[in-house]
Amino acid sequence: MKRVDVVYVLIYDEETEKVLMVENRRGETSDFTLPGGGVENGETLEQAAIREVKEETGYHIEVGGIVAVREVFRSVKGHHAVFFTFLGKITGGEISLSRPDEIVDIQWVDLNTADRWMKVIPGGVSKLLQSRSSALYHFQGHV
Known about the structure:
Helix content: 10-25%
Largest sheet: 7 strands, mixed
Number of domains: 1
Number of strands: 7
Structural class: alpha+beta
Order of helices and strands: EEEEHEEEHH
Shape: globular
CATH architecture: Alpha-Beta Complex
Oligomer: single chain
């Protein structure tokens, strides 16, 4: 199986108590996830997270620690996927739907909705926010 790394970013607005989510086009269907996507060759997890959020939402972010790591074997695709979920904070930009072929919609949603839409995360997004003691992420460079 081919190893595939995927990053997601949990962006939570404490003032409105809402989570930023994107609706991904999946052929004839769609589903909502946190902003994110595949890590490109030669790219760090952090770089991928920043790039994916910018591409999918228009926002510039800074990345905090990792709040979840999840992996799955996808035999249909022949992938061993590892998903890294970072905390993120918006530092600039403005919401824009620049990739309509991939992203159908961008929404700020309440925690109950985010939990329903992100069933793959045990305990949902709320669980990630409750345990905000994130793991430190650091790219050590090439050694």
